[in-house]
Amino acid sequence: MSAVRKVKTIVPTRTVLEGGGFKVRRPAAMGSLMSPFLLLDEMGPADYAPNEAVGAPWHPHRGFETVTYMLAGEMQHEDSVGSKGVITPGDVQWMTAGKGIIHSEMPTKKMMDEGGLMHGFQIWVNLPAKDKMMNPRYQDITADQSPTVEKEGVWARVVAGECMGIESSIDTVIPITYIHVKMNPNTTLEKQLQEDLNAMLYVFGGEISVSGKAVKDGKLALLSPGSKIIINSKKGAEFLILAGPEINEPIARYGPFVMNTREEIKQAIDDYQRGIFA
What tens digit of pLDDT does each residue of 3-18 get? Predict the structure, then answer.
């Protein structure tokens, strides 16, 4: 009989300022609780007047991946390996920093000229020691390339992994599940998951129930082991399903660098200052 996952811990969120001063809602102490995810930032929602929108100017990364997913608004991406692009609603930017990359994410000219709603997510995914110094790469997945599925009042965008029989084509270094779900009132979603993956749910609208435990807007639910999740919503909800393998390795972290030892962090800082990042 399949083991049904239950809510193990509920983590509250806090609002902090990042980048050039944009507000993000972030689960507290997530990096110490939920391997392989180091960070989950809900960017906004923020309604900007013309010339008010802010972003993240040029900054470096090493040793992990950043995943940006837009729900509203536009961001202009550029990095030191020559990748450029505009991220619009439904688009995903999956950047593997690897041995080192420098990039910026800023509002587009249209956002600055016209203003508007900005809302999205950025998630940091840790890399195993053997992959931390891989060559940087950038995957730009537009909304029409990011598959969606809708059945019996449940809609899902499959950013990575599988949901309701639909699979993402994105190439991940480690097995990652990343699903954006919207549920109508009085609906149920049963999601199969590998038992060896850590799993969590982040609710950013409405309320869900997992094995009888309520998870409300702005809460992160860490789940127990098991092969499936049964999610119910009486009033409707919007949330993320995230899952990935436990990386049972030391973490040394300093700002935009995530390595395994303090010596590797010092080397990353030195390499960046000497201009040898990609």
Answer: 999 999 999 888 887 7
- The most distant pair of C-alpha atoms in the chain lies apart, rounded to whole Å, by 57
Distance CA 82, CA 134 (A): 17
- Give the C-alpha separation, 270 to 70, whole Å: 33
Quickly tell me which residue has 């940006």 as its tokens: 68
- Report the DSSP pairing between strands 228-233 and 75-79: unpaired
Beta strands in 30-134 (DSSP E): 37-48, 56-61, 64-72, 75-79, 84-87, 92-96, 101-107, 116-126
What ranges do the domains of the chain cover?
7-273
Fold of 7-273: Jelly Rolls (2.60.120)
Q: Which three-class secondary structure state does DSSP give residue 32?
A: helix
pLDDT tens per residue across span 113-163: 999 999 999 999 999 999 999 999 989 999 999 999 999 999 999 999 999
DSSP state of 183: E
